[in-house]
Specification:
single chain; alpha/beta; 14 helices
Length: 331
């Protein structure tokens, strides 16, 4: 009886995190979408003012945030040694003495993934061998995406063949700004097919989409085309992840789940640098989507510097003192 129950629970867990297979493009629904910016901004302004997470509860939330980080290096001067260091930090994101002080040393805490450019996938794969930490690769002419579709699809296929288990693709922003929803849907469908078994994370570059209504429509079209995650930004725009934008995208995810039964992940990226900011995003996800989304199969932070501040906050929890940044190994 117990064995049957465990088997059933395992099946339910797999079903809970099944991939988004997508649906047919529903233009009537897309046209009907309209976002009230004032209402969204008022709601977003309440995040962090109504809830206060302190002491051991704050430490627990911050450890959860660590497991949801896509530890990222996307700089022009990236080298194999940079990626090796990044992967070492992904394997051991929090100092062992801090984990031992919190009784968490046997929990196997790692970051959610490591995100790199295509040419460094091989280095990341070697450095992460045996860790079960997935490699995410940015693709499709990141960050602008302004090359022919055929070449974008080839980039995806090459990254998957090199070992990337997640592909962060960028959408063609002009299709959103001109209302070419059919064109966006068809391109996304082809990119989803090119990903094969790898999960597709669609970057909307929300700072370049002009309105929250455009962001909502782009979110739905990408999900209809089969995106497994929708992501706010490349991190290269002048405006990256914000709470109003995130709220708009989370509500699109909730609506899509209610309509189709598919759970799509969410990834805010760019500008999230402090533990306090991370808590605000975790609270927003909990309030809008519930605890089911508070794990690294459905929620990620796209960040590089966030981990350092979280580790400093955890040291303060353990010792009562804030440490200098040089006490924590760099990512």
């Amino acid at each position: 009886m117990a064995k049957t129950k465990k088997k059933r629970e395992a099946v339910e867990e797999i079903a809970q995190h099944q991939r988004n297979e997508g649906i047919a493009l529903d233009m009537n629904y897309v046209r009907s979408l309209n976002v009230n910016r004032s209402a969204v901004e008022r709601r977003a302004a309440t995040i962090g003012t109504r809830r206060s997470v302190k002491k051991e509860w704050q430490a627990a939330w911050l450890l959860r945030a660590v497991t949801c980080i896509d530890l990222t290096t996307l700089a022009g001067d990236d080298t194999p040694s940079n990626v090796q260091r990044l992967c070492a930090k992904a394997r051991q994101p929090v100092r062992q003495d801090l984990l031992e002080a919190m009784g968490m040393e046997k929990m196997g805490i790692t970051t959610g993934a490591v995100c790199v450019y295509h040419n460094l996938i091989i280095e990341a794969k070697k450095a992460l061998k045996g860790s079960h930490i997935p490699i995410a690769a940015v693709s499709t002419a990141f960050p602008a995406g302004l090359i022919p579709l055929k070449e974008r699809l080839k980039q995806i296929e090459l990254s998957v063949a090199a070992g990337a288990e997640e592909i962060d693709i960028v959408i063609h922003r002009a299709q959103v700004l001109t209302g070419d929803w059919e064109g966006l849907y068809q391109e996304m469908k082809q990119m989803r097919a090119a990903c094969g078994a790898a999960h597709m994370k669609a970057i909307l570059a929300t700072g370049e989409l002009s309105t929250l209504t455009n962001i909502a429509k782009a979110s739905h079209v990408c999900m209809m085309a089969g995106a497994d995650f929708i992501k706010t930004s490349t991190g290269k725009e002048s405006e990256n992840a914000t709470l109003p934008v995130s709220l708009t995208m989370l509500r699109a995810i909730r609506d899509y789940h209610e309509r189709t039964g598919y759970k799509v992940g969410f990834k805010p990226a760019g500008g999230i640098r402090t533990a306090k900011q991370a808590l605000n995003w975790l609270i927003l996800v909990k309030e809008e989507l519930g605890d089911e989304w508070l794990n690294n199969t459905l929620f990620r932070f796209g960040a590089s510097s966030l981990l350092g501040d979280i580790e400093r906050q955890l040291e303060h929890f353990v010792t009562g003192r804030y440490s200098a940044s040089y006490r924590h190994p760099m990512a």
